[in-house]
């Protein structure tokens, strides 16, 4: 019963994954976690670029580095790896054969690149009319930038994210700052996942497939959310505030005696409790600081006083004091602390899977929690070409001799 497709939300779906690096693989991993059969096509001898983006690498049972980079492991769980040279006619025919037996094709090649191989949406849709085909690029399939290569870092800048991220320009260290992870890639993978599942729902009702055009720049612009509408409503572009808030004080990070905390005071009562917990009740009665509008006006005077106060206690002392007082707060944890956190552990956010070369591979679980069809962790990220024989022989019905001939010619 554990292996029944009915226990997998997408157990009836096959995905042909022609993507590499992060945005596309992130989408494909989401679909795999939800039960889809994902076949990842990789270049013979090299594979996905991220396989080589190390160190760090997965270690084997004796503590030695394997060839599996941690970056690659982050986005490729639950897939089958097939090595295939799609620049060859034989490789192209195999892709077409796999597409005919798939529900979804994902690709992140440059605009027009797959058309010369006969692997674009129009070509494959003629052979499988109900195919869902999702293209992921930096700038989309049309517009003056369509032919440009898209890189997450550049898109974070172009899409406005870095104009609102980073310390204030008038403070030390001020200036634009990228996010600590590739957010436009990751969010594009998430939006692509939503689009694919919406297209599958539409196909279930109508029998029709469709084309999905995802662009990193579109996603980066969209995800600025209220910053966008603040600008559109006022005509004034928002600026950087670092870890502070333009309208609330104190609502920022503070250094403690042994780390950092976040204090998110939402009203004057919480502010009073905050300074009382720090042994500085006078800061709540001083007319310059008694109300939030006054605190905002006098932030440059108040914040240094609060910073000195917070430095007198440890991170955990402050968390205990402020939680008891009902003041919103939280630690700034490193990843050691994140994975030691009892709430993170209770939510099952780390999963350990057996790996062919690494013994066990430690991965981060899906945040999706579903009562009937929860995410599945049936397989670790695959070795390069691990499933070539299985897929070509089992799914496409090729004989061992045919597969050996393809291997001899360098097609697989």
UniProtKB/TrEMBL annotation:
Task: Please give the superkingdom of this protein's source.
Answer: Bacteria
Does the keyword section mention Transferase? yes
Q: What molecular function terms (GO) are annotated for this protein? A: CoA-transferase activity
Q: Which UniProt keywords apply?
A: Transferase
Task: Give a single Pfam family match.
Answer: CoA_transf_3
* Name of the molecule in the record: CoA-transferase
Q: Which organism is it from?
A: Noviherbaspirillum autotrophicum
């Amino acid at each position: 019963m554990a292996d029944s497709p009915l226990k997998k939300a997408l157990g009836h779906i096959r995905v042909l994954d022609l993507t590499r690096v992060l945005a596309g693989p992130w989408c494909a991993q989401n679909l795999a976690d939800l039960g889809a059969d994902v076949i990842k096509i990789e270049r013979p001898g090299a594979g996905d670029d991220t396989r080589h983006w190390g160190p760090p690498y997965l270690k084997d049972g004796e503590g030695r580095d394997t060839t599996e980079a941690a970056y690659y492991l982050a986005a490729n769980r639950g897939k089958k790896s097939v090595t295939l040279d799609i620049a060859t006619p034989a490789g192209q025919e195999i892709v077409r054969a796999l597409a005919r037996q798939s529900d979804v094709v994902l690709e992140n090649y440059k605009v027009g690149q797959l058309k010369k191989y006969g692997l674009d949406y129009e070509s494959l849709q003629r052979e499988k009319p109900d195919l869902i085909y999702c293209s992921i690029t930096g700038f989309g399939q049309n517009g003056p930038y369509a032919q440009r290569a898209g890189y997450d870092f550049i898109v974070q800048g172009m899409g406005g994210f870095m104009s609102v991220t980073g310390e204030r320009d008038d403070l030390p260290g001020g200036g634009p700052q990228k996010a600590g992870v590739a957010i436009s890639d990751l969010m594009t993978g998430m939006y692509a996942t939503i689009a694919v599942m919406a297209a599958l729902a539409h196909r279930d009702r109508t029998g029709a497939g469709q084309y999905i055009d995802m662009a990193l720049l579109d996603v980066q612009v969209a995800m600025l959310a209220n910053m966008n509408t603040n600008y559109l409503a006022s005509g004034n572009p928002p600026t950087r505030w670092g870890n502070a808030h333009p309208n609330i004080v104190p609502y920022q990070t503070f250094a403690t005696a042994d780390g950092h905390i976040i204090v998110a005071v939402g009203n004057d009562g919480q502010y009073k409790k905050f300074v009382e917990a720090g042994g500085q009740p006078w800061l709540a009665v001083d007319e310059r600081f008694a109300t939030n509008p006054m605190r905002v006006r006098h932030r440059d005077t108040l914040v240094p006083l609060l910073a000195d106060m917070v430095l007198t206690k440890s991170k955990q002392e402050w968390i205990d004091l402020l939680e008891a007082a009902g003041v919103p707060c939280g630690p700034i944890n490193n990843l050691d602390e994140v994975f030691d956190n009892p709430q993170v552990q209770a939510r099952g956010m780390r999963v350990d899977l057996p790996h062919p070369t690494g013994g066990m591979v430690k991965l981060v679980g899906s945040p999706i929690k579903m009562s009937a069809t929860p995410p599945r962790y049936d397989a670790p990220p695959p070795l390069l070409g691990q499933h070539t024989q299985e897929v070509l022989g089992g799914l496409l019905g090729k004989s061992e001799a045919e597969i050996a001939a393809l291997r001899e010619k360098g097609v697989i």
